[in-house]
UniProtKB/TrEMBL annotation:
PROSITE patterns: PROKAR_LIPOPROTEIN (PS51257)
Signal peptide: 1-18
Name of the featured protein: Trypsin-like peptidase domain-containing protein
Source organism superkingdom: Bacteria
Length: 408
């Protein structure tokens, strides 16, 4: 009895879980077929749903209750495991080549009685045509770990490595040539609707047309994580592809399959740019999932010709913006797009650092850096100012401003 009490006390006190750095450090039950040489040449993409990435797991004792967020650790485990087995491996993306796609889903839990972290991972392997070639479900758990982040990373990695061994052994048993070099087809964008089923928009932003060919400008962060992007124009959705992206400037150009009736005027040089205190307005689709299917307009002024800590690529303006405005145009009363809305000052950060919040401190990429980006990307734009009038400028703006839908 004494030994049982000691063992239970040691268990409840917690044990160390070694950080997972690579797949080789993870122990699994299934041994890999000896005929396989790693990493195999067959490129792999993996997909984890937003539901899994945002999962919450609850734990409690007699005195308190807490949350775990295992989703990011699921992704981290995939980033650790798959590159050890596949020469090309990465999350499913518009430009990610693959021969096989593994769709991952999981159930995650925590046992309050024993302090056990546990996961069940289902891995469904598809070919590029969307046919399921293999499917397996794997359980993994660890008890008494001190650090829940290390615990979930470890057991997710164990489940993923086990399922990968099973898949590779299955394909080897079929004499499938996993070492075949990547083909041109595997470098092309796949049909995500066929692979993932009908997708719903996971987020939205704003963009605006800059020429008559259907090219539009937006913020890069609006489209960076999208598997598929659409532009909503006159009540219809049109597919849009990325033409150019700058993560440094947070700008992107999309090509939509349509010819817009209007497009924005972009200042030709610095003498046409805005001045401190100048009146401007913003058009866009804030809170797109709950607001009207029509662009909104807010008004303000240029508050600074620099961004945070004097960032040269940005302007500060006071026109109110909300989530969904990102990528929309900042417009002067001549109808010129003098900026691209990118961000607002974080209120939680301000409250924590200064004890107060700020109002309408928003930022846009300036016209100068818009021009540099578009010129470097060989994208055409025009300078066609209107007669100075808010009514005329706003009427034009709502016609060239569109909603961008992001599917993940």
């Amino acid at each position: 009895m004494r030994y049982l009490i000691i063992a239970l006390a040691l268990l409840l006190a917690g044990c160390e879980v070694a950080p997972v750095k690579d797949a080789s450090s993870v122990q699994v039950a299934t041994k890999l077929d000896n005929s396989l040489t790693l990493p195999v040449a067959a490129p792999l993409a993996y997909y984890i749903s937003r539901e899994d990435l945002q999962r919450e797991v609850y734990g409690a004792d007699g005195y308190s209750r807490w949350k775990f967020y295992p989703g990011p650790l699921f992704k981290k485990a995939a980033e650790i495991v798959y590159p050890d087995f596949f020469s090309v491996a990465g999350p499913l993306a518009e430009d990610q080549p693959f021969r096989y796609l593994v769709k991952l889903s999981s159930e995650a839990g925590y046992s309050n009685l024993w302090g056990t972290f546990k996961v069940t991972v289902t891995a469904s392997y598809l070919d590029r045509q969307g046919n399921e070639v293999f499917k397996t479900t794997t359980d993994a758990s660890v008890t008494g770990a001190n650090l829940w982040q290390e615990a979930y990373t470890s057991i997710y990695a164990e489940a993923l490595k086990e399922s990968t061994h099973r898949f590779l052994n299955h394909m080897a048993g079929l004499n499938n040539d996993l070492q075949q070099p990547i083909s041109d087809e595997e470098r092309q964008t796949a049909d995500f609707d066929k692979l993932l089923g009908e997708m719903k928009p996971a987020g939205n932003g704003t963009g605006f047309f800059i020429n008559s060919t259907g090219q539009l400008l937006t913020a890069a962060h609006v489209v960076n994580e999208c598997l598929k992007t659409e532009v909503r124009y006159h009540g219809q959705n049109y597919p849009a592809n990325r033409v150019a992206v700058s993560r440094v400037l947070d700008l992107a150009v999309l090509q939509a399959d349509l010819q817009p009736a209007r497009f924005a005027s972009i200042p030709a040089n610095a003498s046409d740019d805005v001045a401190l205190g100048q009146s401007v307005f913003v058009t866009g689709y804030p809170l797109g999932s709950i607001m009207a299917d029509y662009p909104s307009l807010t008004m303000g002024n240029i508050s600074s010709l620099g961004g945070l800590k004097g960032a040269l690529a940005n302007l500060q303006f006071s026109a109110p913006v909300q989530p969904g405005n990102s990528g929309g145009p900042l417009i002067d009363y001549n109808g010129n797009a003098v900026g691209v809305v990118t961000s607002s000052l974080n209120q939680s950060m301000m409250l924590a650092k200064t004890g107060t919040t700020s109002q309408n401190v928003n930022f846009a990429v300036s016209a100068e850096y818009m021009r540099r980006f578009l010129d470097h990307s060989h994208v055409q734009y025009r300078y066609q100012p209107l007669k100075k009038s808010l009514e005329t400028a706003s009427d034009a703006a709502v016609k060239f401003t569109v909603q961008i839908l992001c599917y993940q």
